[in-house]
Amino acid sequence: MEEKLKILFIEDVQSDVELVWHELEEKNISFSKLLVDNRDEYLNGLKSFEPDLIISDFSLPQFDGMEALLIRNNTAPLIPFILVTGSVNEEVAVDCMKAGADDYILKDNLSRLGPAVINSINKIKILKEKQAVEKDLERINVMLQKTQSIAHIGNWELDLSAKTVWVSDEALKIYGFVNSGHEIPLEMIQKIPLPEFRSILDEAFDRLLKYNEQYQVEFKVKRLNDGDIRTIYSRVELELTNEGQVKFLGVIQDITDRKQAKEALIESENKYRRIFNNILDVYYETSLEGIILDVSPSIGIISKGQYNPEDVIGRSMYDFYSDHMVREAIVEALKKDGSVNDFEITLIGRSGTFIPCSISAKITFDVKGNPEKIIGSLRDITERKKAEEELIRARDKAEESDRLKTAFLHNISHEIRTPMNAIVGFSTLLTEPDSDVQSRQSYTEVILQSSDHLLSIISDIVDISNIEANLVTAVKGDVNVNAILKSVFNRFYTKAVRKSLELSSLPELSDSDAFILTDATKLTHVLSNLVNNAIKFTAGGFIRFGYLVKKDFLEFYVTDSGIGIPEEHHSLIFDRFYQVENSESRIFEGTGLGLAISKAYVELIGGRIWVSSEVGNGSSFFFTIPFQKQNVNVENLTKVSAQSDYNFPERITILVAEDVDSNFKLIQYFLSKSNVNVLRAKDGKEAVDKVSSEKIDLILMDIKMPVMDGYKATEIIRETNKNIPIIAQTAYADDNDIALACGCSSFISKPFDRHGLLKAIMAFV
Question: How much is the pTM?
Answer without folding.
Answer: 0.40
